Amino acid sequence: MESVMGRYYYSSCSSSSLFLLLVASSTVFCLVSPARSGDVEALLSLKSSIDPFDSIPWRGTDLCNWRGVRECMNGRISKLVLEHLNLTGSLDGKSLNQLDQLRVLSFKGNFLSGSIPDLSGLVNLKSIYFNGNNFSGEFPESLTNLHRLKTIVLAGNRFSGRIPSSLLRLSRLYTLYLEANLFTGSVPPLNQTSLRFLNVSNNRLSGQIPPTKALKQFNTSSFSGNLGLCGDQIQNPCGEGDNNGGIAPTPSRNHPKPLPTKGNKAKRIGIIAGCVGGGVLILLLILLLIFRRRRKIKPRSVERKGKAVAAAEGATPETEGSDQKNRGFSWERGEEGSVGTLVFLGTGDPEETVVRYSMEDLLKASAETLGRGTVGSTYKAVMESGFIVTVKRLKDSRYPRMEEFKRHVEILGRLRHPNLVPLRAYFQAKEERLLVYDYFPNGSLFSLIHGTRGSGGGKPLHWTSCLKIAEDLAAGLLYIHQNPGLTHGNLKSSNVLLGPDFESCLTDYGLTMLHNPDSVEETSAASLFYRAPESRDPRKASTQLADVYSFGVLLLELLTGRTPYQDLVQEHGSDISHWVRAVREEETESGEEPTSSGNEASSEEKLQALLSIATACVALQPETRPVMREVLKMVRDARAEAPFSSNSSDHSPGRWSDTVQSLPREDHVSI
After folding, report:
1. Which of 33, 253, 273, 381 is the most exposed place for a label (fewest CB within 10 A)?
2. CA–CA dist 377, 359 (Å, integer)
3. What parts of the chain have a pLDDT lower than 70?
4. What angle do CA 314, 318, 324 make, to 5 degrees?
């Protein structure tokens, strides 16, 4: 009896334990599995509406390994990037809103159409990229309710209607790209201090550009192509009535138009007289041009001293996005009145795309001053065709000799690397030398750190952003150094441009030998303290180890947000690490430095790795600095151990780790 009761008790206990285990397992399943299962169902439902060609072959339930799923958090998808996949159809709002843990959402470069559905459910969204599709309808108002949203890129679609003032609710807004759409009405009075990147060009906007501090930092390129706009930023003064969206009020039926007065009549006569006088003046100019073309004109250098050139002469190398404009370049004509020819450069690869244009096209281009440096002045040139290039007009057209200049520039023109701004063409005459580069509209690293009109008081970047930028720069520098005798020679944050995917690209490389060392012009303090102590004498040639020193100073600028207007290395010496930490702690206390996405121990480890690299690079003795190959390896080792996905594809120019990372690229150098 006892044994029977014992067996019964054991059996009951076993059954009870099994029951509890099943209940516990079911509870865990309910807590974990449905979240992932819900995301799987939502993605498959989304796929059925936009992927008729099965470009995204999602199979199984492990969605974190599905194509386009760039990042997961606790089994939930946080980053979805479906770019250039020939997706069609319209977006399913119900499916998208179920993905409520999304931080980054990108459908860039597809053929999606229709209006954007209500996305109010994506409460954690920080970056959205819908550019390069066929979306239509009005601006998706639901986006303005997503308070964590920093980056909105809707360029290259067919959106219409007004740009809503409710965008002011997005207190963290950092990037707003709405160019190449059909938006009408006025520009909203954006006043967010966080706003660093804006483009509303090539729409149908009108009225005065609001004179807010946030909008004043942007130049013509952010607003061009809107014929009805006026304001200081585009050099088009506003008249009466332009403050109301640029649309004059329609006369009421009860208030007929006023009768002409003597003043109005006199005004009309003045306008007619002005038109006649203008016509006569134009006719005289045409006759003068015809007369000049019949003469033989020898090469000479005539610079039109317009506002743009005058502004350039007083600008610093960090002066970017100047709103001053020239009506056109005045580069010199050659013999027999013909325009001198541009010499196009390249690698000789038949697959390389080369856009051809003539010197005449450059002569007719509108010019906007971007800055002035020791080598020359830099302009943004917009040709009549709409094609844009960057033109550097060299200061000394007689140094070095023509053959030496040609040989060196052709070497630079063969350099091709994803972290270099390519040199496309050059022009030289007896008293004129020009270099033509690709135009990069996303600005420079200097503007990213310090703002478009930065005065040196920027904010330190998150360590993940520092690592990403450091790898880009180190890869570009190593590529330059692998070419015998070549150095950058003038590395600083204003000579680092942001590429189409916001990768960091070096510009103005290899130009130090085009500057006459006997020139009496002094180098600005901003440039001087980037240079290694042994290279501050302009009569001494730049070296690769001097580039390493400049890289270290630039890395310190990323970590602190401070420009080297003073000699940071000499001033802080062995206390560089302590100084960097103090600056970052100060920003953290002020609430400017965001918390890390990883744990504190990992953040400290990465910060220490960056400090070690910077300290090694800025060693005062050149022989104790690492070579660029070693620097790149140290940076890549640090990135490989970082606690974020190495294939993150957020292409935003944002300051922090979740907004400054790009797709992995094939290595072009070997370690």
Report:
1. 253
2. 18
3. 1-37, 240-281, 287-340, 349-353, 452-458, 517-526, 565-575, 586-602, 641-671
4. 50
DSSP state of 663: -
Reference 472, options 447, 498, 490; nearest CA is 498
Q: Provide the pLDDT for residue 601.
A: 62
Report d(CA 615, CA 369) in Å as an integer. 36
Residues 126-174 pLDDT 10s: 999 999 899 999 999 999 999 999 999 999 999 999 999 999 999 999 9
Classify domain 445-516+523-640 at the CATH superfamily level: Transferase(Phosphotransferase) domain 1 (1.10.510.10)
Strands 432-438 and 343-344, sheet pairing: unpaired
Could you identify the residue written with the tokens 């076993």? Answer: 14
Q: State percent of the chain over pLDDT 90.
A: 34
**463-481 helix and 544-560 helix, angle to the nearest 10 degrees:** 170
Query: In b/e form, how buried is each residue of 570-603, taking b as 16+ CB within 10 angstroms?
Result: eebeeebeebbbebbeebeeeeebeebbbeeebb
Rounded distance, CA 78 to CA 151, Å?
15
According to DSSP, the β-strands at 134-138 and 127-129 are unpaired
With beta carbons less than 8 A apart as the criterion, state whether 663 and 472 touch: no
**pLDDT for the residue numbered 12:** 43
Asked if 307-348+356-438 and 445-516+523-640 have one fold, the answer is no
Residue boundaries of the structural domains of the chain: 29-234, 307-348+356-438, 445-516+523-640
